[in-house]
Each structure stands twice: as structure tokens, then as C-alpha cells.
Amino acid sequence: MPGRVEIRNIRKAYGSFLALDDVSLDIAPGEFLTLLGPSGSGKTTLLNVLAGFVRPDSGSITIDGAEFLLLPPHKRNLGMVFQNYALFPHMSVRRNVGYPLRLRGVSGAELDRRVEEALGLVQMAHLADRGVNALSGGQRQRVALARAIVFEPSILLMDEPLSALDKKLREHMQLELKRLHDRLGTTTVYVTHDQREALTLSDRIAVVNGGKIVQLGTPDEIYDRPKNKFVADFIGETRFLPVETGASGALLYGRPLRTRDDWKGATGEKPWLVIRPERLRWKGDESQTANRIEAETTDIIYQGDSYLITVRMPDGAELDLRRGPDLGGKDLPERGQPIQLWLDREHTILVADKS
Amino acid sequence: MTMVLNHPGIADADHNADALKRQGSRERRVLASLTLPGAILIFLVLILPIGWLFWLSFFGPSGEPTLENYTRMLKPIYVRTFISTFEVAGLVTLVCVLLGYPVAYLLSQLSERTAGLLMIFVVLPFWTSVLVRTYAWLVLLQRTGLVNTWLIDAGVISTPLPLVHNMLGTVIGMVHVMLPFLILPLYASMRAIDSVYMRAAANCGATPSQAFRQVFLPMSLPGLAAGVALVFVLCLGFFVTPALLGGGRVAMWAMQIANNISVYGNWGAASALGVVLLVVTGIILYVFKRLFRVDSFEGVR
Fold it and tell me: What is the ipTM of this complex?
């Protein structure tokens, strides 16, 4: 199966700013890999290096074993969906989608058939003769996708393709993108700053920060086993509590803390406990002191699908706790009332400031 | 728990509806009165004179009502002038496009800073009077002018080239005056073409020259059409440069108007010519607007 990408030691500096700091990454054929990071992290630069729009200072990219870095963009044969779609306004939907094929010398019935097929895949066949300015954001996005896949590239690049859509449509398109990927099996490199989108779509996620890949893994690895405070903070609604380490193990506000993995941080590194609202349990063994948190309820917010309860720790730190509307036989706490919370050992994760 | 809004200061809903309506119409009156000085000015200096011109065109030299001012235009001399006006305007516009498009493209691809700097050279001619520039061309192009003297001294030619007092000189002078009118709207529309379209074309497999021809060029057409319409229309009514550099060999509509007043003192005939020029210009702008969906003085819509 074609579509194997090997990125080796790519470096790109803009003056003294290092946009890509020796990035290496292997992408398996057919994989959906997401580059996830905040703006300015280098994720878009890396995508543009792949597409050929940014010339790196050094490094190598091979696709299916062949060196790729020196090819001009128009010879790379990659499909790409741009952030604002970049559909040609002077061409109809049909001509936009047919453009890559016409450049490859496809014409006549063959051209029509393949354009119809690509438009059919994104459910846009009925609007083929519209001008692109007459389309809604979601429709443009579909046409851009059809244009990127119509010439059956072995690799598909997507630069925040859903960021201009509203939330509901975005979530719908995520599902469609996932289905389309399952169907076509094209190696896909997807750039986003939306962690939920990354978790939804990806086979693997590369979390990018400061021009480096800080963690590479499957969505559950990234979410449940973040390597450092940056990754834990960027993914999920994360709060951190400071943890003491002593001879007997980790201590949280003087109470023992049983963690999933032993703290292996270097001396002088301060461990932080990663707490996510949906992982905090509010029922547990009251005789057990380990992994128990005592706090005071400060706010209760009804959010329709759940309650968001904010609690204050003795030292003033605040935590959020999410509860479904079914409270499991327990009443909602009231403001100012003390509350006891438990953390499963499985979800008790310590991270350092830096990995 | 229910809560009743009952505040002594708040009037009932009907009362508010009336007050809101009054507020709205008062606002419209204030805004309308703000446009009044401008509207009066336009009426006094534009609508009124043109209306008067139109009125005059139906009267003969001694004040009798006649259509002769219009029927006279069917004479060969007027028809020839009419055609040659369009030829000159068309030729000047064509040369402006050939020279101006590359300049606008270059400027649009440079950084804003560099482009701003180079733009000074494009608009510099605007800061000098057309008359001065036209005489400057006369100095350069005449039989004993700089260009001919240099060419003879360099041994390229033995007798002076007829560079001025003909069509060539007229076109050179008019192109010089008109070029900024083409470059400015074209540059603005080219700046508005996001570079992502060229990237998208390259990604689709287009070589740089294919991307330029198939994506950039068509996307720049509305701006080009705006510039072309502007230059063409300005050329149709151009007087000073063709009069000085044409040497009597280039007959333009505007010169015909001037002749009717300065030589024959026939205001009616001159008015009729003016009315025809105005109507033709209007038709051309309308056609352009329909063909390219542009407003010639607003650039790209």
C-alpha cells in the first residue's frame, strides 16, 4: 500500500525563531495523523514543508522510499484542503474539482466520470454546476475535499479544514471525514488546534509545541498518559494540583496518593497531579484516606447534559467536577458545603513541568 | 417563583412603539439633511450645466430651434473624427494594458513596503500638470529633440524620425498620462488575490506559468476591466495632449468641440457633440458593467 511518509530531522528557522526544531516523524500508509498544537507551534509550517510551500533549512522527507523534499509543489501529487478552502472563484464547482485532472491530461468522458464520482463521495453532485460563491461554508468545504481527492493522491494534507464552520456543522463534518478516510484509506496529515477534533479523527496524534513534537501517540495514550504538563494542559479541561514527594511516596495535601506510575522525575522537578473533571469520583470508601480530596463546593452550574461543580481546595486552588444529570442516588451538594472526592489509581497521573 | 415587572417609570408597550417610530424617522431626517449640501452642489455644478448643454444643443447659431446640430454629425468629417477618436482611445488603452499589467503584477507581488516605494514612481506624473508633461514630450520627440539628436549622433539614423505631430507622438503622450489610471485599480485588485490561490493551483499540479494563466490572470480580470474602462473613457474626451502632439493630423472628438466654439462660436453644435460623447461614454460604461460586473470608478465589486 503506498503512502508511507518518513520525515527526518526537518529544521526551519525564521531569523532567530526556530519554527521547526529537528522534527522526525514516520507516518504509516493509510494512517490518519493529526498535528495538534497551539498557534505558532510549527504544525502548519510542517504541513507546508510537506506540501512544498515552505523550504526547510535541512532534513529529508521520503514518500514510499523516494526523496521528496526537492520536488516543486506541483510535482508532489498531494491532495490538500486549505483553511479557507481556496476554491477558484472564477470556476464552477465542476471545473474546480476537474482542475487537477485537466492538468494531468484527463479529458472527455473520463474527466466527467471522475469528477462526478468525487462529488458523489462528498454528496455534492447535485450542485456541480453552481458557482463556488453561491455555496455555504460546509458546501465549499466538501468541494475543496472533492478537489483534493479527485486525482487519487496517496497522501492528503488538511490545514484546519473545519475551523471556519460553526460547531454543529464541524462535528458533523468530523464524522464524515472519518468515514471518508475509512473508505478511501488515504494517508492523511491533518492540522488542527482543536484537541477534541484531534481525538475524534486521528489514528495517532503528534502534539507539537515550540517547533518540536512533544508527544506522539494514539488518542487514548495522549489523553490518559500525557507525558508532561504541556500535553496534559492542552488536551482536556485539565487542572493541576501540586504534589509532594517523600520517602513513603507521593503526598497530596499530606495524604498518600497512589499513582498509576511511580514518580520518576529528576531531582528538583516538581510533580503535578493531573485532574480532569470527568475523572473525579464523588462516591468512594469514606474510611480510605489515600487518593481522597476534601474540598468546599463553590459553584454548581447546570449545563444541560451535565452539572459542572467547582470546588475549592484548602489552599485556595479550584477544581472542576463534572456529573451527569443522573446523580446515582446522591444529592447535589450545596454551595459552601464540604465535599469529598476520590481519584482512581488508574487515573492518578503525575507530570513534570517538562518531560 | 414568578416576578412581575412593574416599574412606575416604564410606559406601556404601545407608547414605546410610537416613540421608537418617531426616533427612527427623526434619525432619517437628520441623515438626509446632512447630504443636502452635497446634493445641492451636485445639482448646481453637474446636473444644471449638463441639462443646459442638452437644451442648447437643440438651437442653431441664431437661436432658432433645430435638429441640425445632430444631423450634421452624419457628415463624413464628423464620422471620421468619431471613428478616429475610438481608434486612438483603443490603441492607447491597449498599450496601457501591455505596459501596465506587468508593472501592477510586479507591485502586487512585492512586500507592501517596497511596493509603496515603487508606487511613488507610478503616481509621480499625477503631481505635474498634463500641459507641462505634454510639452516635455514635445521637447524629447521633435525633429531636433533629444531622442532624434541622440540617435543621429550615435549613428543609428541619418535623418530625424517623425516621432511627434502624428499618431505616434499622440499615443506616446496619452499613454504616459493614462498609465496610472490603469495601474492603480489593477494593482488594488491584484493585491486582493490571496496567495493561497496560487498555492492551491500548484497543489492541483499547475506549473507556475499554468497557475498564472489559469488562476491569477482570470482572477485579475475584473480589476483590469475597471482600469480599461477608466482609461478608455478618459481617452475619449482627451483634448490637450492630442491637440499638442497630434500636430493637426489626429482628429479627436474633443478637438471638434473646441473648434466649434473657438472658431465658429457655435455653442449649439458644440453642445450636441458633448451630448453625443456623454451618451456614448455612458453606454460603454454600462456595457463594461454588464460584461465584467465592475464599476469603473469603484474597482472590483
Answer: 0.84
